[in-house]
Amino acid sequence: MGKRVAVVLAGCGVYDGSEIHEASAVLVHLSREGAQAEVFAPDVDQMHVVDHVKGQPTQEKRNVLVESARIARGNIKDLAKLDVKGLDALIIPGGFGVAKNLSTWATQGKNCIVSKEVEEVLKAFHAAKKPIGLCCISPVLAAKIFPGCELTVGHDTECEKWPYAKTAETMKELGCKHVNKHVTEIHVDAKNKLVTTSAFMCNAPIHEIYDGIGKMVQEVVRLA
Q: Any residues with CB less than 8 A from the CB of 208 and at least 6 apart, and which?
């Protein structure tokens, strides 16, 4: 029987939820590996709603679980119901929702708080020595919760290709080891069973982002 992998989403859309291409790539690659994805999201309000045409917040209110259900085609559960015992691994795609709805990283950086439910889930998988896959901005969750862990969010020198490279510096300030990797590469922290890749932290063609996520998923399933 295939591995059962929890996928935690943070809404629907890059600027206020989960990055849809990253979430989709995770689900496609899990399917390719013969793994069964079980999708979860917290039943909470989004920090705010962003108009993705204008790139600006609106007055709307949306729920993270309801929005995430769009990506999961309705096959989703409340994160509060996640039971680590029946699952083999955890993957959290990126998108600003990770920094806005799963934590306060977007507004507080290294001084952020990770939401209680998300922190409990990450600690439960870590304590059970089950692998955790993180891409794009979601490695910041591990940086905050597991001091001294090894991660990648791509490169630590800002340029046109790496517009969010300052994130790597902040992770180092939290006492983590940041490892520079290209978008198609992953970093594996064997001790903590953490597998990370940069995804859209890099200004790269979408197929390269897709390939990097594929390697992350493959390694998570292998470690499970």
A: 183, 184, 202
Cα distance between residue 190 and residue 195, in whole Å = 8
Catalytic residue among 12, 112, 136, 176: 136
Please count the structural domains in the chain. 1
For residue range 53-106, list pLDDT tens digits in order.
999 999 999 999 999 999 999 999 999 999 999 999 999 999 999 999 999 999
Q: What is the CATH number of the domain that holds 31?
A: 3.40.50.880
Q: Is 136 a catalytic residue?
A: yes
Express each pLDDT in 130-177 by its tens digit: 999 999 999 999 999 999 999 999 999 999 999 999 999 999 999 999
Q: Read off the pLDDT band of 201 (50, 70, 90).
A: very high
- The token pair at 115 is 């939401």
Distance linking the first and last C-alpha atoms of the chain = 13
Q: Is residue 1 pLDDT above 90, yes or no? A: no
Q: Which domain holds residue 21?
A: 4-223
Give the rounded distance of the alpha carbon of 164 from its chain centre: 15
